[in-house]
Amino acid sequence: MKKAFLFVLTGIMFLACSRRETISLKEKLQAEDLWGNPINFSEVLKNEKPTVIVPISTSNCGYCLIDGFFTEKNYLEHNHTAGGSSFHQCLFNPQLDIYTFQKHFRWKFPVLTYPPRLHLYHMDGFPELIAFRKGEKILGRFRNYALVDSLSRMLWNGTGEMIPTGHYHMAMSVIMENKNYQAVRVFPANSNIPDEILRQQKRWKGFVAKTIDQLNRADLEKHLYFTGTFSFSQIARLFRGKDLPVRFEKGRMRIGSYSMNFDSTGLRMVCPNPFNRNKYLVLSLYQDNEAKKLPSYTDYVFYKTSEDSSIWLLYGHFDTGDSLHWKFSEGTAFSQINRKRLCEGKCEIPQPLIPPRRKTPDIVYSGRSDTLGRHFKFGAANCRFPDVLADPNGTVWLCWEEDGDIHLGKIDPNNTIATKKIENDVSDSYAPRLAFAGNKLWIFYLNNRDTYYRLYAKTFDGLRLSEAILISPKEPYDVLTPAPVSDTTGNEITVAWSAWLANYRRLYYRNIKNGVLSPTKEIRTYPSKYVKDYVNAWFPSLCVDRDGVVWAAWNQHYPAIFGLFGGRIDEQSRPITREGEKMDDWEQGGYAGLFADGRKKYVVWESNAWGSYRGEAQKIKFASYDDRQGKWSLGEDISVEEQTFLNQTPCAASDRDHTLWVAYSGRPRAENSTWGIYLTYRKEGTWSFPVLLSSKGETARSPRMTVDRKGNIWLTWHSGKGKQMRIRLLLLNKQQFLTK
Predict the structure, then answer these.
(1) What does the pLDDT look like over 313-351, one tens digit per residue?
(2) Which of 3.40.190.10, 3.40.50.40, 3.40.30.10, 3.40.109.10 would CATH assign to domain 2-156?
(3) What's the count of helices (H) and strands (E) in the chain, helices before strands?
């Protein structure tokens, strides 16, 4: 993947606009952030201080997303310090997807999400940094994020120096792709530099290759990438007295309270260069160990290699609180062996954290009825991304995030409402999902109690709430977009999630049967014809058919630019969006709502929205699975262009009469419109005209749906803007709805 990406970038370079493009100051351009808060964008662009925008590619590839923390530190924080206005821009992804970007990258600055024609400012799939001053575009087509110095001179009079940020993938991107020979690739003394490296030096123009004994002072102040089997004296002499997270002493490498033999242990590490802390230092010291499948998403890994694989002795992330002086952190260190074997003296292995609870207001709710059915409103402020589930006993459960906490509501068959706080400690939680098995409700959610967002669950039997159960592996990466489903027996749950590993995202799942967790397995993503060994898959959706078979669907970048794939969770998946001869020819779309009606499997999804800035409407699509052919049908449009121009995050269900129901968030074409929740159904092969369920003029997004044992339809979504967001729950008056 690396070579393919660099080949694409060969002709890409930093260009300040040779021809200045003026934004009309007469035009009133109203934008919105992720939560619907309005931004008078035409006024922002008039400012004398720069307005800097980092667009995020809607293809969602790991390379195109780039490292958001690097973006924050080196573009937006510099601009904020200089008094400018700073934004990310992500126009075509649904809210929850963008929210995961914010959590993973720890973004602090607003995200522009509307209107689509903001895309006209950059018009590309790759990231482009753009900037404005006094209504004039002063920076465009800045695609190489390694050239911070050039940007600093242009926008902030040279005051913003580069700040290195974590993980090996990011450092190598800067070293290899800076296009200005700002790096030195260092080999052991008296070694022959391979011809291929010399050809890369000439072709990529990012580094020069030298041996360690050839380095001069100017070389040491560049990005440094040491690679090969070095003698201890070569490394120890060069870094003697330098402030590094790893110390080289008496033939050993020491980090924290751990120690490893230099001559027999491999090390791959990234940190600020101690000779020039605005540059990267990468150490790739093999010491006769072959680097087999080392993690690119960590800052360091010590390893030993056998014939088959590398054992990761110690790996993880440094404490980067001081952005130029990184330190070892026990809390973000991991090992594939017993860590105490590496200890020198006392070794304090961190124990699992139980964060203290915080005082939060009581959960509030209210209700009313109208011709659509019975309405409920839950929550006080910042309520987001609800889920709803009807259990076999006739109780309807509702969960949501509220200010980083997880709350639960229930309505029993007697229409009695009760609420409970599931997680309200000082850690941050989001993306709750529900499943039911073994007469217990399972509440899944993401939580960062130990730095990384992991998947946890709690069970609730109506009286007792369990402690948090760790579902995803305890590893140094974030987990996102969980999706659980209960089987038809009422005893088993399958839960899937995506793991974010630098520029890769991989799908995993595990079963929970009779309360017992099975081993974690990887979902078999669809193989790419165009890029080898690259996996970027996320946003899974699960369902169970009448035979108890679990099906999955998900987004995947490659073999399509952005496609949807799915099938039995334990078999090779099939394309849902249409295949093409070339990667660019595949149909694009994603964010599946997978559901079953007996043995029949269906999926709804949103079409690609890139064309919306050209006036092309985004659609909600529907397809079914043909068991005999083992293929998904062609997608059928079920949203109505004259009604809604943008359409996202569909969910679906089938009732006892085999009527198919689909809800989605849609927005009309007019720029002063708002997102609303629309519902349509299919009976006898025909889709009804969609009906707006949410209040007219009130922003409403992220619907979820369930069917109770009587065949009633329950829908939930969040509504309102910014801090005023609340959770809505609707018991649909189905009979009246069907007769409209």
Answers:
(1) 999 999 999 999 999 999 999 999 999 899 988 887 777
(2) 3.40.30.10
(3) 12, 51
